[in-house]
Amino acid sequence: MPKTLVVTGVGGAPGFDLARSLLRLGCRVIAADSDPYAPGLLLPEITSHLTVPAADSGYRSGMLRLCATLRPDAVLSTVEQELPKLLTLRRPLADLGVRTWLPERPAITACTDKAHFATVLTEHGIPTPRTVLAYEPDRAPDGPLVIKPRHGQGGKDVHFCRTREQARVLCQLVPRPIIQERISGREFTADCLVDRAGRASVILRYRLLVKGGLAVVSRTFNDPEVQECVRATLAAIGVTGACCVQGFIRQDGPTRVVITEANARVGGGFLAAEAAGADYVGQLLRGLFQQDIDHGQLTYKPDVCLTKYIETLTISEGKQR
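and the corresponding structure tokens:
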């Protein structure tokens, strides 16, 4: 029978596209977001629900009330900031008959704290940009730098500069900033699905055009060295379920592949994986409902290009929410 699933964060590309993919698979979708203008709340054939922001003290009671009222079969989150709170809700949600598939706390911390992520990868010998905290700019590497929030998502508040002096100024503009070495090269994302035994399927795509942190044009490719580095990253942070890893392929430098971040959610361009033949959302659902993931269904073709675009969902008159 079709499942009923809550998808959170439908104001962003990952949640919006996940909700629509689930609809195509015949699922009933409860689209949830704390922003009343989130476009996913306007998707046809969904049940929309306005939630409490993850940082709000009422998030826990709000999520339990939603699930107790609408009785979904599972919750799929695309908002990393809410993962620590959802982790504490696993037992009460299970008591309501609601499934979750969440990484353990160390993996969530590694994915949501970019400074900690850099430390974990360095400890495991996985190439990653040199990273320092805002209060130690003198330890920043020479050359081009990136200033970004330590707990950011979606490319928000990311700035580039060339000197430590510029980095000091930019750190005043960014919430809880970190300073990183800026890597140049060919940017990629790996859309991954890691089963509960730790086996990972990795689908690679180049980020050909990026706007606001989102790859709006992607093309799939194969590269054994990149896949090996991505799998080493997944093992190092201990993440399971749907996730994505980003990095660069360099022509020059001490290492060819450099990993920049990982996210414990579907990536904003995962539709490229599905367009290339991978049953990404279908196998995610199998894992969510305690079925074996068929990694043979996650193979894909290279050189499949996907272009995302803005579309008009609805036009209305009168007072808006």
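(Above: one complete record from the training split.) The chain has a mean pLDDT of 94.
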